[in-house]
Design a protein that fits this description.
By secondary structure, the chain is of the alpha+beta class. Among the domains are: 56-139 and 329-412, Up-down Bundle (f41 fragment of flagellin, N-terminal domain); 164-306, no CATH class. It has 7 helices and 15 strands. A 5-stranded antiparallel beta sheet has the order 6-7-8-12-11, with no helix packed on it. Helix 1 (7-32) packs antiparallel against helix 6 (419-445) and helix 2 (43-98) runs antiparallel to helix 3 (105-128). It is flat, with a radius of gyration of 54 Å. The protein starts with 6 loop residues before the first helix and ends with a helix.
Length: 455
């Protein structure tokens, strides 16, 4: 006999708690009337029930939509009825009256005045018959309308700017110097490594001597003066780079920027005119007595194109064509695509073909009779069309109503509680609960038998 753990009591308590929980669930279902109040009750049933509820509510709204559609149709048919009788009937009566030769011209003019008033009344009915602001009897059968609308357009803007850049002389293969003393002299120096320097005297003027210094980003020429035993002066007319690479396909470039100069030298024109001496003075008398050497530092400038692209949005007015929609589309079901189309009408006098009818002279009155007959036939046809629409919508309404009822019954069988079954379950759980209470009391007395053994 075990007294530390009262196993019978623990087992009974566990059953008592389960019975208490079952009783609580049953009471919840009975008090709410719902079998599935949370997903734990029936996960799949809850999902199916919610879908059905969505369909039921959709069908209920569809019934209201159909009733609104029927009201629209009845409004249109009422307007057509008013146009047909008395207006068109009275118009035909007047035309027949005017077709009789017993009338004078003045009589027919009086009839014409009433005809004009009737035509005006027909147009007013057609233009003013509407349902919730929707015109019903003045809608053309087809056509297009032109509209101007504003749209936001994305525009890509490309802009090119030119940035000055000093040319890297190391990207050229050689440099050519043009000099004019007695004649035009030319010297080409291969560019091997930078910096580099070369001394040179023109073939036709050996009394002059130059020092050419070539750097990576510039060129310097020095003409020796009397202090070095040479005739002063600087008769350089141009400097050109050859075999250039890396500058948008440009392989040759002339010096175009003076950095510093203490001689009377100037750059040639843009085309590189090296046939004339490009100096301000050409003999020693043109220079101050204290200048012994003439220095010129020049460089090559390249305008590199830099393209930037930006995207901006701008408003733009565009003209579009839209189809005239002479239809009203009714949503008559719970799902997309459950629609019913109602073609609207145009029963203005112009559409009926009676806007220009005349009853004077007699022949015009006879023609008017035929035109009015055609108008009456058209209005009758439109009334028949709307009558057919109304009958169809009423059948659809009956079907939708039946579907809603049947679907509600199906949803109820899934979601609602079976009261008789739940009462039976509650009765069972109450009996088990009280039984467990009684047995728990008995099981708590079992360990007391140990005392008898101790005696």
């Amino acid at each position: 006999m075990i007294i530390k753990s009262n196993i019978p009591a623990i087992t009974t308590l566990n059953r008592l708690q389960k019975n208490n929980k079952n009783s609580a669930n049953t009471l919840e279902k009975l008090s709410s009337g719902i079998r599935i109040s949370k997903s734990a009750d029936d996960a799949a049933g809850l999902a199916i029930s919610e879908k059905m509820r969505a369909q039921i509510r959709g069908l209920d709204q569809a019934q209201r939509n159909i009733q609104d559609g029927i009201s629209l149709i009845q409004t249109a048919e009422g307007g057509l009825a008013e146009i047909q009788n008395p207006n068109l009937q009275r118009l035909r009566e007047l035309a027949i009256q005017a077709a009789n030769d017993t009338l004078t011209k003045e009589d027919r003019q009086s009839i014409q005045e009433e005809v004009e008033q009737i035509k005006k009344a027909i147009d007013e009915i057609a233009n003013n018959t509407e349902f919730n602001g929707i015109k019903l009897l003045n809608v053309p059968d087809s056509g297009k309308v032109t509209k101007t609308i504003e749209v936001i357009k994305t525009v890509t803007k490309t802009e090119t700017t030119y940035v000055p850049e000093v040319v890297d002389l190391s990207k050229a293969t050689s440099i050519t110097i043009y000099e004019r003393s007695a004649g035009l002299n030319e010297l080409t120096i291969p560019i091997t490594s930078l910096p580099m320097s070369v001394e040179w005297s023109p073939p036709d003027s050996p009394t002059e001597k130059y020092l050419f210094e070539i750097y990576r980003y510039g060129f310097k020429t020095t003409a020796y003066g009397p202090a070095q035993g040479y005739t002063p002066g600087n008769n350089i007319t141009g400097v050109r780079l050859n075999g250039l690479s890396g500058y948008d396909g440009i392989t040759e470039m002339w010096a175009n920027k003076i950095e510093t100069t203490n001689g009377g030298w100037k750059l040639p024109d843009a085309q590189g005119d090296h046939s004339e001496q490009a100096i301000l003075g050409d003999n020693l008398a043109d220079y101050p007595d204290n200048i012994q050497d003439s220095h010129i530092a020049i460089r090559f400038d390249y305008m590199r194109a830099v393209t930037t692209t930006t995207t901006v949005t701008v408003p733009e007015l565009i003209t579009i064509e839209e189809d005239v929609n002479p239809k009203v589309i009714l949503q008559v079901g719970a799902n997309a695509g459950d629609t019913f189309e109602v073609d609207l009408s145009d029963v203005r006098t112009a559409s009926l073909g009676i806007d220009q009818i005349q009853v004077d002279p007699r022949e015009k009155a006879v023609e008017a009779i035929a035109k009015i007959d055609g108008a009456i036939d058209k209005v009758s046809s439109e009334r028949s069309k709307f009558g057919a629409y109304q009958n169809a919508l009423e059948h659809i309404h009956n079907n939708v109503s039946n579907n809603a009822v049947n679907l509600t019954a199906a949803e109820s069988r899934i979601r609602d509680a079976d009261t008789a079954k739940e009462i039976m379950e509650m009765t069972k759980n109450n009996i088990l609960f009280h039984s467990a209470q009684a047995l728990l009391a008995q099981s708590n007395k079992i360990p007391s038998g140990v005392i008898q053994l101790l005696r």
